[in-house]
Amino acid sequence: MALYDNKHWLLSHIRHSFIFSDESGFSEMVMMDEDLRVPSMKAYPDLDQDEEDEDGDAPRSLDVNCELDFGAHRRRVNTAQKLEKMDLERKRIAKMTSIKWEDPMPSVAEVPSNAFERKVVDNAKKEKVKRTSTLSAQLKDCPVLLKNPFFDYSKFDGNAQVGVPVKRYIIFLTMLPERERNYPLHVTIVNTAKVKELVGLVLWKCSEERNAQLEDESAYALHIAEDDGEVDWDFPCLDEKEVVSKFGFNYLALVQKTEVHKSRAQTMSMPLSSLGWSALAERDEKEIEGAEESALQQQAMKEAEMRMKGHMTAMEAPLYQSFQVYIMNRVRVRSAVHLGISGEKIEIDPVVQHKATSQLWGKRKAATYDITRIAACELVNQRSSKSHFRLVHQSLTEDPTTTFKTLEFEAENFVAQEIVQKINHILELRATPVWKEYLVTKERKSTRRRSFSFSLK
Amino acid sequence: MIGGEEGCVGDSSETVILATGGYDHTIKLWQAHTGNCQRTLQNPESQVNALEITPDRQRIAAAGYQHVRIYDINGSINTAAVNCEGLTKNVTSVGFQEDGKWMYTGGEDCSARIWDLRKGSMQCQRIFQVSAPVNCVCLHPNQAELIVGDQSGIIHIWDLKTDHNEQLIPETDAAILSMAVDPLGSFLAAVNNKGRCFIWELGGGTTEEPTRLIPKHKLEAHKRHALKCRFSPDSQMLVTTSADQTAKIWGTEKFENPQELTCDAQRWVWDAAFSLDSQYVVTASSDGVARLWDVAEGSIKREYTGHQKAITALALEDVARD
């Protein structure tokens, strides 16, 4: 509000507003002759130096924002960071006494005699005085120290270094006995280290501080964990060769590798006979073993990939995606619609058709169905290129008993499969009561049918 | 044993203190007999050129770029307690009067200074200017004469009481890199960047006269720059370190046939120190590793790893066992 006192600012604002909003250009012509002298900064005693515009011509208008603002915005953020750094420095220096060199005053010629008095060094005492050393005694007492096998990983410790970007983790050690499992390990590691080295560092810290019996570092893997220590088994273990700076998780758990880990990472060793290779000669067996191993390896990799893909689609399901499908009318005429599926709702937007016939038959309004009303989505039938799928939803009636209505769609095979998969993923994730109810009703129906068929006999 | 990294040293008057510092802006305190790093002190924005433990064993001084920082060895604060500033360029050496009354420094600003450490007192402040950067300063056991070695090859002996000074040049145009006086005041050793080591016998020094230097030996100690020399506490041995990746131990009787301390991994050996009984020597090398050697065998007994970059300074304070 202080600005509104300022004549210069007000005039400038009015001027710019007129020019800005007047499309006829008259105001600009009128004001062209008025020379608005740029006031000196003395008129603004309260403004910080930072807010001073470098460019005197920059518009002082609330409406007109020049692109410089973008840079200025970022300058603010940097300033905040700098202020924080300066604060920390100040705190650090406050703890430190500073002694500045002062050149000795020439008047201090009268140096007190005891300051630089010579000490008598008994040169003659050259008898070989054998002094006993504590260091030597200590070294004798612990002759050979078993070097910690994980010692090489200690160099990745972030605490030992200054000025290097580090990542901090809280690691739950699942292989320790029950009592100790609740106490996680705090680890700081340099950004450039790999997951394998993080495992090694965790093991080193564990053996140093907790005296645990540990195996070789290849027997352990890191998983994402919750903040209460529960391991998230849905995700595979962190890849050993990845750099830790890639991951954002703060809570991790160190687990002992099990068969699952080993089957993912290494080849599966299956007996030859089970694959029907028993007829081959011995010398060929070795060759084939080699080739088979690589084939098995590839297969294992493919399976792992598939599993990863499965994970990915499950994670991606709630993300909004739009499909072009055909909705089936009651009259068996299909009309093209956009089916937009997200974790919150399903939208059906009719594609604008210009053909008269489809307009007549296929006139539909746009509809939105909240996910909490969707009960199921299933493939109905599959033809060579097109498939039909059905969306079941709960109708909004006041009737206490829920009735389910269906919408039928037609789409390309793979599109239909994708849609069905996506909606089912979302439904599983959300686990709405409507979905569960529908499942229950379906079960009941199927059992009733079965029982009915039995009773006929 | 709970401890390991970031533990705190209790009272350091009875423990063996081993400290290393270098280019990674940290000073590490080690448990000498196990090889474990006990604490890491921060020395931001500066490498460590020299380390010296105070006579009361409570603090350690680190000479760096344009400052000398003094840290508490006890406790758990990892930043400097005192920062001595007002200097320009690198401070190359630091030391203390044996009662802790004053501290001396030498630096690239061509001066040697005396800092009065007594609170509020400026009486001991002194400055001594030479014409070349000062590489090393050492104090005669008589606590009254300061020996200053500079880049142009001159050794100055500065009498702190009378302000009188003497000069000698063992070899022209060969920078003096390190000097040492043995605890009994019988020898002065100096090493230069040509790898030579000069030994003088010291005479006088007890009366008001300046110490006399009688040239005794000139040793072709190393093939490259000699970086540091130090006498053992019993004055029986001298260790010289060099850029030729070795440290050599000479007997002070004859100064011949030195024991060589070398291994493949070791690079430039910047500093070395003896245990109290002269049985062991610790070396600091630019491969980032400090090593404890058995003098008689010439073999490595302990390694101190953890520094990320070269170690250029070392300080060892052993404790006598009664």
Describe the structure.
The complex is a heterodimer of chains A (457) and B (322). Chain A is an alpha+beta fold and 457 residues long. Chain A is built from eleven helices and twelve strands. The longest helix of chain A is centred in the middle third of the chain and has 35 residues, at 282-316. The termini of chain A are far apart. The model of chain A is unreliable at 47-58 and 267-282 (pLDDT under 50). By secondary structure, chain B is an all-beta fold. Chain B contains no helices and 28 strands. Chain B has strands at residues 17-22, 26-31, 36-42, 50-53, 59-63, 68-72, 82-85, 91-96, 102-107, 111-116, 126-129, 134-139, 145-150, 155-159, 165-168, 176-181, 187-192, 196-203, 212-220, 226-231, 237-242, 247-251, 259-261, 269-274, 280-285, 290-294, 299-304, 311-317. A four-stranded antiparallel beta sheet of chain B has the order 3-2-1-28, with no helix packed on it. Chain B has a four-stranded antiparallel beta sheet with strand order 4-5-6-7, with no helix packed on it. The relative contact order of chain B is 0.13.
Roughly how much helix do the residues of chain A carry, as a percent range?
A: 25-40%
Distance between the termini of chain A: 91 Å
Main beta sheet strand tally, sense and closure of chain B:
4 strands, antiparallel
The amount of helix of chain B comes to under 10%
Q: Give the averaged pLDDT of chain B, no decimals.
A: 89
Portion in strands of chain A: 15-25%
Low-confidence stretches of chain A: 47-58, 267-282
The computed structural class of chain A is alpha+beta
Kindly report how far apart the N and C termini of chain B lie. 27 Å
What letter string, H or E per element, gives the SSE order of chain B?
EEEEEEEEEEEEEEEEEEEEEEEEEEEE
Please, how many helices of chain A? 11
Instruction: Kindly report the spatial arrangement of strands forming the biggest sheet of chain A.
Output: 9-8-7-6-12-11-10
Strand order, largest beta sheet of chain B: 3-2-1-28
Q: How many strand units of chain B?
A: 28
* Large-scale geometry of chain A: flat
* Fraction in beta strands of chain B: over 45%
Query: Number of helical runs of chain B?
Result: 0
From the alpha carbons, calculate the radius of gyration of chain B and give it in angstroms: 18 Å
Greatest interface and its participating residue counts? A-B, 55 and 71 residues
From the alpha carbons, calculate the radius of gyration of chain A and give it in angstroms: 39 Å
Output the helix-strand order of chain A: HHHEHEHEHEEHHEEEHEEEEHH
